[in-house]
Amino acid sequence: MNRISRFYVKANGCFAKIAVSAVTVLAGLIACGARLPSVRAATTAKAPQFLPLNVHVGEKAPDFALLSAGGQLVRLSQFAGKNVLLDFYEGYW
Amino acid sequence: MIVAVSTDSIEKARWSKERIKLPFPVLSDEKRTAMDLYNTRSLSTYKGPEGGPYNHATLILIDANGTIRWIYRNPDYRVRSTVEEDLAQIRKLQGSAASSLGKGHVK
What we know:
The structure holds two protein chains of two kinds.
Chain A: H1 2-46, E1 65-68, E2 73-75, E3 84-88
Antiparallel strand pairs in A: 1-2
Chain B: E1 2-6, H1 10-19, E2 26-28, H2 33-38, E3 58-62, E4 68-72, H3 83-96
Parallel strand pairs in B: 1-2
Antiparallel strand pairs in B: 3-4
């Protein structure tokens, strides 16, 4: 009898422990879930997607030479005398 | 004059130019020289199929003397300036200077 009751108490204690830890985990998950969106929003709002440019309004536009779609070497400075809208885009249109 | 710059290969740049029939130079900055010169590099972790960093969309309006007169960037790369805004800036520049955005064509 002693053995059986002791086992029962032990088993019962174990179950209680599991139940308590399950409740803790659940509470933790709920807390995390509730906090996650706000944490995520704060991160996206703060994280910069670009660094400051090396150039500013009022400065001379640095010259560069690149190959065009037609394989021709094009220099920015060759358009001197014209207004130029320089469009840096991501690619993969 | 409009000059388009991306990190696309010449083949991709040609594809863009021909498919959308762009009447202005489409330049290939595969080695990221112009990107690093102007620092237009995006910090976003997205990588294109060819890999490597790419531009955060940036518009730079340069006058006939080579001076930068207007810059447009948006913290959200998906937000572009409107055509109306671009044209307003160009007209402002044309009003202050005698030159205009010529219809130059570079093959």
